[in-house]
Specification:
With about 500 residues, the protein is an alpha+beta fold. Among the domains are: about 1-45, no CATH class; about 220-485, no CATH class. The protein is built from 18 helices and 14 strands. The strands form 5 sheets. It has a 5-stranded antiparallel sheet, sandwiched between helices. A hairpin with a 4-residue loop joins strand 4 and strand 5 (about 125-130). Helix 6 packs across helix 12 (about 390-400) and helix 12 runs antiparallel to helix 13 (about 405-410). It is globular and about 75 Å long. The two termini are about 45 Å apart. The relative contact order is 0.10. It binds zinc ion (2 copies). InterPro entries: AGP_Transferase (IPR051678), Aminoglycoside_PTrfase (IPR002575), Kinase-like_dom_sf (IPR011009). This is Aminoglycoside phosphotransferase domain-containing protein.
Length: about 500
C-alpha cells in the first residue's frame, strides 16, 4: 500500500499526523501518532504471543472485509447500472453470502479484491475493488492509479498481449469533478480470464526453487511474452505511468503512481513524468532523502541511509548512460513475482495479471530481468555476474533471434541495483552497487572498503549538506566520534 503520505492520527481529537512505513497498524488498521502509539492507548502494543497477534490481525481483517462487503452490497445497484452502460445486456453481481468463506478466500489477496459479475450471454467480468484498509488515499492518487491500470490494460490488449480487458467506472470516466457521485470504495471492471497461476517458491537468499524442466519452461514462456512486449510501439518518450491523453486521443506518460519513497508526503504527492533516467532516479533519491529527514523511512539507521543516498545521488548524476535522451519506451510490469503469469493445461501463458504498478521506461530497464531471476545471497554480497536464470533468459532471447533483448539482460544490473533506492540495508554490500556504474563512477570518488571508514569519508565529503547536519545531530554523531569508532573497529579486527 502506498502509505508514505501524511495520515491523521485516528485517536479522536488528536491533531497529529503520521508519515512512516507501517503508519497503518497491521494488526488493527489504525493510525497512531507517537504519543498514542503505546500501551494501553494502543492495545496492539501490549505484550502478546505470536498466536494472539495473528488472531488480532485476523479479527481486524474480517471486520474490514465485512464493512467493505456491506458497502459493495449497498452500492450494488449503482455498480450494475454502471456496468450495463457498456451495452452487453443485463448482468448480475455475485456477492459472497458466507463471510467466513469470503475471509478465507481473501486472506492472501493483495491490493485488490474481486467479485464476479456475470452477463446473461455467459460473459464473465470481475469487479476489481482496491483494498484501502479503512484509509482511503487522496482522490487524485486513487483516480490516477485506476486510470493508469485501465489505460495500460487497453494498450496491451490492443497489441495482442493476453491481459484482461478493463473498463473505467462512471465516477472516474467523467471529466467533471463531482464528489457526490463517488462510491465509498474504488473499483473498475475487469474481464475474467481462465487459467491457473503458479506460485514460484523463492527465498530472498536463493534462486527460484523449481525442477530444472519447469524452470526452463517458465523462462521460455516469460521470454516469449517479453518478446511480444518489445514489439509494442508507444506514442510516448517519457518515463511515467500511462494515462489517456486528451490532446492526442491516445496515451501519454503521467506521473509515477506512488510507491515506496518515489512520491511526496504532501500534495501534489506524485512525481514525474521524466524525460531522462537521470532525472527520474535523482527525483527518487531526493524524495528518499526528504523521507529520511522526516523519519518516515530508515528510522533506526538514518545516518547510513542518508549517506548512502548521497552516494547514489553522486553516481547517478555522473552516469552518461542514465543521461541519454530517450528515443523509445516500453511498458514495464513491475510486479513480476512469477504468479502474475496465468497458464493453461498445456503449459501456455494465457494471461498476465496485476499491471497496477506498470510504467513506461527505457528498453534497457524494461528488459532487464525481474528480481526472481537474480536475487540471491551472491547478489546481496556484491556479485554482479549473471545468474543461471538470467543466462537461460539470454539463451532464449538469442534462440529467438533477439540479441538486443539478451543485451538488455546483460546490462540489467544498473537498473536492478537502482531499484533499491529508498530501501537502505547495510547487509547489501555497497561495492555491488558501484560496479555497474563503471570504473570511475564519479570525480575524485574513492570510497573506503569498510563501512566504518566509508561513514567518515562521506561525512567529510558532505560537510555542507544541511540535511546531513540535521541527521548527524539527531543521531548524536560527529565526525570525530565516527573516526574514533573506526579506529577501535580496526584495532579489534587486527
Ligand atoms: Zn494496532
Ligand atoms: Zn495521536
Amino acid at each position: 500500500m502506498p502509505e508514505l503520505i501524511e495520515w491523521p492520527c485516528d485517536v479522536p481529537g488528536c491533531q497529529n499526523f503520521v508519515c512512516e512505513q507501517g503508519a497503518i497498524c497491521y494488526m488493527c488498521f489504525e493510525v497512531r501518532c507517537d504519543e498514542h502509539d503505546k500501551s494501553p492507548l494502543h492495545a496492539c502494543r501490549e505484550p502478546q504471543t505470536n498466536a494472539e497477534r495473528q488472531q488480532r490481525k485476523n479479527n481486524t481483517k474480517k471486520r474490514y472485509l465485512g464493512i467493505l462487503l456491506s458497502k459493495v452490497e449497498e452500492y450494488k445497484h449503482e455498480i450494475i447500472k454502471d456496468a450495463e452502460r457498456h451495452g452487453l445486456g443485463q448482468c448480475e453481481l455475485v456477492l459472497p453470502t458466507d463471510t467466513e468463506e469470503f475471509f478465507e478466500s481473501s486472506r492472501a489477496s493483495g491490493f485488490n479484491i474481486h467479485f464476479p459479475l456475470n452477463w446473461q450471454d455467459g460473459t464473465k467480468w470481475l469487479l476489481r475493488v482496491r483494498q484501502d484498509l479503512g484509509h482511503r488515499l487522496p482522490r487524485q492518487v486513487r483516480e490516477l492509479s485506476i486510470r493508469s491500470e485501465v489505460t495500460t490494460l487497453s494498450i496491451l490488449q490492443d497489441n495482442g498481449i493476453p491481459v484482461p480487458a478493463a473498463w473505467l467506472p462512471a465516477y472516474i470516466g467523467t471529466d467533471e469533478e463531482d464528489p457526490h457521485s463517488e462510491p465509498p470504495f474504488d473499483y473498475f471492471f475487469y474481464e475474467f480470464l481462465e487459467g491457473k497461476t503458479w506460485t514460484i517458491p523463492k527465498h530472498p537468499w536463493y534462486a527460484m526453487d523449481l525442477p530444472q524442466d519447469t524452470l526452463s519452461h517458465f523462462i521460455e514462456g516469460y521470454a516469449k511474452h517479453q518478446i511480444q512486449m518489445s514489439l509494442i510501439q508507444l506514442p510516448v518518450k517519457q518515463i511515467g505511468c500511462l494515462q489517456p491523453s486528451k490532446l492526442t486521443e491516445t496515451v501519454e506518460a503521467g506521473p509515477i503512481i506512488a510507491r515506496g519513497t518515489f512520491q511526496n508526503s504532501k500534495p501534489p504527492y506524485l512525481l514525474g513524468p521524466f524525460s531522462t533516467q537521470r532525472d527520474r532516479y535523482l527525483a527518487h533519491i531526493d524524495a528518499t532523502l526528504r523521507y529520511i529527514i522526516l523519519g518516515a523511512v530508515s528510522r533506526y539507521d538514518c545516518l547510513d541511509a542518508y549517506l548512502w543516498h548521497l552516494e547514489l545521488r553522486e553516481l547517478v548524476s555522473h552516469s552518461d548512460v542514465l543521461a541519454q535522451p530517450i528515443e523509445e519506451v516500453h511498458i514495464k510490469h513491475d510486479d513480476e513475482k512469477g504468479d502474475h503469469l496465468m497458464w493453461d493445461e498445456e503449459g501456455n501463458i494465457v494471461g498476465i495479471l496485476d499491471w497496477e504498478w506498470a510504467y513506461t521506461t527505457t528498453k534497457g530497464e524494461a528488459f532487464a530481468a525481474p528480481y526472481i531471476f537474480y536475487e540471491d545471497i551472491d547478489y546481496i554480497t556484491a556479485d554482479n555476474i549473471m545468474t543461471k536464470e538470467e543466462q537461460l533468459l539470454i539463451d532464449c532471447y538469442e534462440r529467438h533471434s533477439r540479441p538486443d533483448l539478451a543485451d538488455c539482460v546483460r546490462g540489467g544490473r544498473l537498473y536492478q541495483r537502482l531499484r533499491h533506492i529508498g530501501q537502505y540495508a547495510d547487509h547489501n554490500w555497497k561495492r555491488g552497487f558501484r560496479e555497474p556504474f563503471g570504473p570511475n563512477p564519479a570525480p575524485n570518488f574513492h570510497p573506503p572498503k569498510y563501512d566504518v571508514d566509508w561513514r567518515v569519508y562521506m561525512m567529510k565529503r558532505y560537510t555542507d549538506d544541511v540535511g546531513l547536519a540535521d541527521i548527524m545531530q539527531r543521531s548524536r554523531c560527529t565526525i570525530e566520534k565516527s573516526e574514533e569508532e573506526a579506529r577501535k573497529w580496526h584495532q579489534e579486527k587486527e
